[in-house]
Amino acid sequence: MDKTKYIFITGGVVSSLGKGVAASSIGTLLEARGFNITIQKLDPYINVDPGTMNPFQHGEVFVTDDGAETDLDLGHYERFTSLSLTKKNNLTSGKVYDTVINNERRGLYLGKTVQVIPHITDEIKKNIMEAADGKDVVIVEIGGTVGDIESLPFLEAIRQFKLDKGKDNVLYIHLTLVPFIKTAGELKTKPTQHSVRELRAIGIEPSIIICRADRMLPRDIKAKIALFCNVEEGAVITAKDEDSIYDVPLALRREGLDSKIIEYLNIWARSPDLSEWENISNTLKTLKNYITIGIIGKYVNLRESYKSLNESLIHGGLANSINVKVKYINSEDFEGDCLKEKLKELEDCSGILVPGGFGLRGINGMLQAVEYARINKIPYLGICLGMQLLTIEYARNVLGLRDANSYEFNATTPNPVINIMDDQKDIGNMGGTMRLGAYPCVISKNTLAYSIYFRNNKRYNHVTNDKNGVELNHDGTISISERHRHRFEFNNKYREAFEASGFIFSGVSPDGKLIEICELKDHPWFIGCQFHPEFKSSPLYPHPLFRGFVAAAVKYSNALNGLEKSSHAKNKRKTLAL
Ligand code: GLN
Questions:
Q1: I need a surface site. Which of 157, 323, 357, 498 has the fewest CB within 10 A?
Q2: What is the mean pLDDT of the chain?
Q3: pTM value?
Q4: What is the average per-residue pLDDT within 460-484?
């Protein structure tokens, strides 16, 4: 018998109300009460997954261990809970239609007319139940806003759930906006009333309403929402804007959200232990000092594009008791006439980071940033594309291979330091075909990478899922597992030349063939990794690379401040000779 309880979260009024953070926070609260949970996202768009979408369109593509390219909300789910999610946790309309149309072609519908109801809705329900298998509670977030044409099949499917599973086993939570209108000096409930009415018109009656607002809702406003929306007053929950998203689970708990959930679902549970989250919240509130990290990339105009990266830097800051201020610099502005001015912008950065990316645009700017960090001995972290560029910059400026390049930017370069991977050469379909997901990496002894992952022989529990933690091998090397998303790799033809000049390949695939981490001998902290560490960092377990990067940036900043105080040493920091 299916003992799983289902919580469906819909959103109303406007998008970007933080449904993902609300779903994640409910996950935090229910896990803290001892439930075995999972969280699933249903996305109404027709793309089979977001992997083929431009980051400007959709924000970051989050990658799971099993190599699914998913919605960025899955990143929140993993950061707020102990979950390690899989491709089952993100379902799009595109994926549903793809399966149904394939089934139809195979004759599986026995001559019937294939329709949205029941065929599409049945396929949606089947996917939800598969994700929920064996869990106490599954939290399902429905993307989009109630009223969108696109999300109707999902809403119809979740409506049917209550009939299928019984009313004690299904709970609908609606997240809305309660705006404060300055000129009237009032909080307005009308948008919430309308959006709940819309939901009820399609047969879904929410039992709990979470209201985003810039202030706590007073009793009379809650009473009004309760009356008009047909819910209990105690089930109208304020979700006030918080300084940090990591305060949200605590804020929702104070409003009694988790108690209401277990009451409505009729499940017994211990009271939650949230002490670790309280620690995080208190630490974030008391941090006074900050350091600045410069991110040089081309998707900097949309913060959502680097969601996990941003969060990971906050985690790195938490581990070092410092605020991290991120300065985004568009790599495309970093060229030609503006170069000098842009390099100046890097002067107050204590660390430089070049994140992942695709395509030729903005590459020269990023290369300039790498060179600046290398020469000025500023801590540098290059992620995926940022690692590839680190090797190209080195090949050009240290090894003297002026035309060194990546196959991605110039397929006919005589020096493809970064080459296309063998299994990527004959790829026809672009969707889901990169080297994706978790792969192991072996780190050599006596390297910076080793000390970062395994300092003082103590393993960092840097992942929520212990079995993916750091392993000590018999020969003294260590093994880690990290998530990937790339088509290109370091070309082994150049390995000897690099090594001969003091370049270190500190992490490789177990067969030794693929470069995973590289670093420089004559630099305090200069690291490139072919994988994406930002997908495995959380506030409770800051990832060692971000912990280490922020620590190095703090050290750099202290040294620089010390110098500036003690002498005229502003110029000690040479700017790159142009
Ligand atoms: N474009 C590069 C590749 O495909 C880097 C990818 C990335 O940064 N995620 O290998």
A1: 323
A2: 90
A3: 0.92
A4: 72
CA dihedral of residues 140, 145, 146, 147 (deg, nearest 10) = -150
State yes or no: cis peptide before 50, omega within 30 of 0.
no
Question: Which atom from ligand 1 is nearest to the alpha carbon of 359?
Answer: 1
Do residues 143 and 71 touch, judged by C-beta distance below 8 A?
A: yes
Query: How many Å apart are CA 431 and CA 450, to the nearest integer?
Result: 34
Ligand 1 touching residue 358 (CB < 6 A) = yes
What is the Å distance from ligand 1's center to 486 Cα? 4
Atom of ligand 1 nearest to the CA of 484: 9
- The pLDDT tens digits of the residues spanning 301-319 come to 667 888 999 999 999 999 9
Residue with CA nearest ligand 1 atom 7 = 356
Task: Give the model confidence (pLDDT) of 369-401 as tens digits.
Answer: 999 999 999 999 999 999 999 999 999 999 999
Whether ligand 1 lies within 6 angstroms of the CB of 76 is answered as no
The CB of 355 under 6 Å from ligand 1? The reply is no
- Indicate if the pLDDT at residue 299 is higher than 90: no
**Cα–Cα distance, 154 to 124 (Å, whole number):** 7
The per-residue pLDDT for range 492-538, each reduced to its tens digit, is: 999 999 999 999 999 999 999 999 999 999 999 999 999 999 999 99
DSSP per-residue string spanning 481-539: EEEEEESEEE-GGGHHHHHHTTEEEEEE-TTS-SEEEEEETTSSSEEEESS-GGGG--S
Consecutive H or E run containing 425: none
Q: Give the distance (Å) from ligand 1 centre to CA of residue 311.
A: 21
Q: Which of 390, 377, 351 is nearest to 550 (CA)?
A: 351
Give the amino acid at 258: D
CB 389 within 8 A of CB 371: no
Q: Supply the Cα-derived Rg of the chain in whole angstroms.
A: 25
Residue nearest to atom 6 of ligand 1 (CA): 486
pLDDT tier for residue 566 given thresholds of 50, 70 and 90: low
Is 462 annotated as catalytic? Answer: no
Dihedral of alpha carbons 376, 377, 378, 380, sign: positive
